[in-house]
Design brief:
The chain is α/β, with parallel strands linked by helices. 45% of the residues lie in helices and 12% in strands. The protein folds into four domains: 2-139, Rossmann fold; 164-335, 3-Layer(aba) Sandwich (Rossmann fold); 338-412, Helicase, Ruva Protein, domain 3, CATH 1.10.8.60; 437-487, Arc Repressor Mutant, subunit A (Orthogonal Bundle), CATH 1.10.10. Helix 13 (343-358) packs across helix 15 (383-398) and helix 18 crosses helix 19 (467-487).
Length: 489
């Protein structure tokens, strides 16, 4: 007996306020009047209800339809509904609430042992049931998010050190949190831009913990790690039979983040098709599983992160311009470590204290003057992540002596090759026949680029010249090499 959300018997609740909007519920109860009353109350909260009165009818409904939740009276005329749980006839993705008679707590315990999420004892207030279903659905979302986290997502730094060099980013985050507190629902997306290792994941966690969604789920997805063939199913979920191996419906990660935060790292890794579907989620506040004929309302705070220039990717046809416009509302930029000046030393001190505490090294050693000087001069292409790893390596293998970062400097410095005539080689002297100043300038530019990890702007800062100068020299050098190659043909 399907019951529409507008079915009489209980006052309708606006969909924006309803507890179960877009949720499909199987209701199994053998008392006709109670079944009708419960179905009306649940439907009034936005759910699509299928109401049946026996185990046989429940089996038929489960075979024909997919459900998000099920409410089962334990004792029915043709058996016990807990058999559906025990025999796994109810898919694992369905949130189950059981109804027991007075004194039937043992039945509830048995049902929960087989996978039920909650129970109510007769007699109970019918208005309580939608709340129990909603809570069971939230538990289901949390399990899906935790399942994904255990598979490898979500590792990262627990804390974030701001410092003076990140005052602008810190101020932007404070304004976002203040705006969130006033709005609370359908929060605007946040775009975090920065090189790999600058702490984008940690900032996303900070934003979640300090905002109104702190009690909700935080689902972290590295888009680059999602196999393209599985990305749509992982993010959007699927219905039973949507494809060959879809033996049961599965909640997607976007749905799992409902009421909380969805963090999409390395967002440009998503295919254009996935970008289009994500845009629909942002615009319509709903997600449609693979194989579904309708969307499900979701209230997700989307935080996206990128280490690439999205505007450049739009120009190259690799990122959707309309998606960029929707994401680029609240932007936070994290500068690379090499741009953080004296903050590098203070950040390193905080990391030393934290890592030393983890390894039981007390008191935490201090960074010597020569170590601080090297911290400021090294390029740190891996940014904060590289710095944390170097500090941990030093404390474990070298103790306090490793905090002079001499080993890092040796690995970073371009090795000299005796006798190669390079201006950068140890013991170089000007030859009597003279040398090429142009060539020397090019060598300095190449050294700066290696230290800056290929970043032209950072290389220009190391050399004390403009970015345009470096690009001009690189183009000139390339043109000269092409001309030489052509002459030699």
């Amino acid at each position: 007996m399907p019951v529409s959300p507008s079915h009489g018997g209980a006052p309708a609740v606006p969909m924006s306020e309803s507890l179960l909007a877009g949720t499909s519920v199987l209701l199994v109860e053998d008392e006709p009047l109670l079944l009708k009353r419960l179905a009306a109350v649940v439907a009034a909260q936005g759910a699509e209800v299928t109401a049946v009165g026996s185990v046989k009818e429940a089996r038929r409904a489960l075979a024909d339809l997919d459900f998000d939740a099920a409410v089962l009276d334990v004792n029915l005329p043709d058996g016990r509904s807990t058999e559906l749980l025990r025999k796994k006839e109810i898919p694992a993705g369905v949130a189950v609430v059981v109804i027991t008679a007075g004194g039937g707590v043992a039945d509830a315990v048995e049902a929960m042992r087989f996978g039920a999420a909650d129970y109510v004892v007769k007699p109970f207030d019918a208005g309580e049931l939608p709340v129990r279903i909603r809570r069971a659905r939230r538990d289901q979302q949390a399990r899906r998010a935790e399942e994904f986290r255990r598979e490898g997502a979500g590792a990262g730094e627990p804390d974030f050190y701001f410092g003076g060099s990140l005052a602008e980013a810190e101020a932007a985050l404070a304004k976002i949190v203040a705006a969130d507190a006033k709005r609370r629902t359908q929060l605007a997306p946040v775009l975090i831009a920065g090189e790999t290792g600058t702490g984008k994941t940690t900032i996303a966690r900070w934003l979640h913990r300090h905002g109104p969604r702190a009690a909700g789920p935080l689902v972290e997805v590295n888009c680059a790690a999602l196999p393209e063939a599985l990305a749509e199913s992982e993010l959007f979920g699927h219905e039973r039979g949507a494809f060959t191996d879809a033996r049961s419906a599965r909640i997607g990660l976007i749905e799992a983040a409902d009421g909380g935060t969805l963090f999409l790292d390395e967002l440009p890794s998503l295919s254009p098709a996935m970008q289009a579907k994500l845009l629909t989620v942002i615009e319509d506040h709903s997600v449609r599983r693979i194989g579904a004929n309708r969307g499900r309302p979701v209230d997700v705070r989307l935080v996206a992160a990128t280490n690439a220039d999205l505007r450049q990717l739009v120009t190259e046809g690799k990122f959707r311009e309309d998606l960029l416009h929707r994401l680029d509302l609240f932007r936070v930029r994290l500068p690379p470590l090499r741009e953080r000046g004296e903050d590098i030393v203070r950040l390193a001190g905080a990391l030393v204290a934290r890592i030393a505490r983890q390894y039981g090294i007390q008191p935490a050693p201090e960074i010597p003057a020569e170590g601080a000087a090297r911290l400021r001069s090294l390029p740190w292409p891996g940014n904060v992540r590289e710095l944390a790893h170097e500090i941990e390596r030093a404390l474990v293998f070298d103790g306090a002596g490793g905090l002079d970062f001499a080993a890092v400097a040796r690995r970073t410095t371009v090795p000299a090759t005796p006798g190669n005539g390079s201006l950068l080689s140890a013991g170089f002297t000007l030859p009597a026949s003279g040398f090429s100043l142009e060539g020397a300038v090019n060598e300095f530019i190449q050294l700066a680029l290696r230290q800056a990890g290929g970043n032209v702007s950072a290389a220009a800062r190391l050399l004390g010249v403009t970015r345009d100068f470096v690009r001009y020299r690189l183009r000139s050098d390339a043109a000269g090499a092409d001309a030489t190659s052509s002459d030699g043909k």
